[in-house]
Amino acid sequence: MDEVTVRNRIKRFQQSGFLKGYQLIVNPALLGVRLGQLWFDVRPPSGKEDLIRKLSLMHGVLAVSDSYGSSLSLIIMYGDEISAEKEFGLIAMMSNAQSLVHANIPFPGCAIELTHTDWRIIKALHTDPRQSYSVISRKVGISQKTIKRRLQRMIEERALFVIPSWNPKALEGAIIADLVVFYANPGSKTDLDKRIVSHFDNFLVSTRLSDIEHGFFNFIIGNLSTAKEILTWVNHQPGVGRAFLELVQDRIEVYESFNEPLDRKLTEFSTSIRAP
Predict the structure, then answer these.
(1) DSSP 273
(2) With the CA atoms of 42, 46, 50 and 51 taken in that order, what torsion angle do they form, in degrees rounded to the nearest 10?
(3) Residue 134 — very low, low, confident or very high, per pLDDT cuts 50/70/90?
(4) How many CA atoms lie within 13 A of 131 on its CB side?
């Protein structure tokens, strides 16, 4: 598409409320945390709404996706495997889930060391990454030129990512579908990912393919029959160990949980020698 078409489409998404905004994500390795995603069924389904409210208040939970039926998924931040097991066990108990599927959300390696000024810039941008350089400059107290240079370095070194914030309820005439595929073996990953992306290119919005055990594919589709066709086709592909598809009807985002490790980093620098 040409640039004008893209701008108009994005504007339409914003006006409809489907595109709520953007969220700044710091590479978890720099914060000393990890991210994981869980999928499970709520028993009984009538308790789903109350559980979503409780999960959105739970420490470390960043987003909860409410799918049709009894299904829920959430993205959670944790410190280590021991704390993860405790959190996962608590969620399984709260939901009465018969089974709880979980997978890591790996991020690219990041070798740079951020300075106190870098963390202050990140803090200023955290809730609104589309702020102008002049606004950030006033908040942080350094020049726009310096902010631009430091941000460019952090982006190039994979320290920062910006992701869109969606409101599935505002999507008209279409459905958000999340396909999760666990590979039968690591050797089948690359070829299987390529086949899925190629076959469903018309519906594909985004992918998460950095984990060796599973792949995540986000689609926007027109109807339920398309969802069934996607899952049937995928399940017949060689290299698939397990696959399931969730139809997302709402998404609750609580990225404020990132504030705690961010504030901790700023506190660490405040009690030591500040880098320029």
Answers:
(1) P
(2) 0
(3) very high
(4) 23
β pairing state of 240-253 and 175-183: antiparallel
Least confident of 37-51, 55-69, 186-200, 247-261: 247-261
Own/partner pairs for 169-174, CB < 8 Å, 24+ apart?
169/17, 169/249, 169/250, 170/16, 170/17, 170/18, 171/16, 171/18, 171/220, 172/16, 173/222, 174/220, 174/221, 174/222
Residue 199 has pLDDT above 90, yes or no: yes
pTM above 0.85, yes or no: yes
Residue pair 50/93 in contact (Cβ under 8 Å)? The answer is: no
CB-based contact 255:23 (threshold 8 Å): yes
CB burial readout 134-163, b (16+ within 10 A) else e: eebbeebebeeeebeebbeebeeebbbeee
Model confidence band, residue 130 (pLDDT cutoffs 50, 70, 90)? confident
In b/e form, how buried is each residue of 256-274, taking b as 16+ CB within 10 angstroms? ebbeebbeebeeebeeeee
d(Cα 251, Cα 72) in Å, to the nearest integer? 10
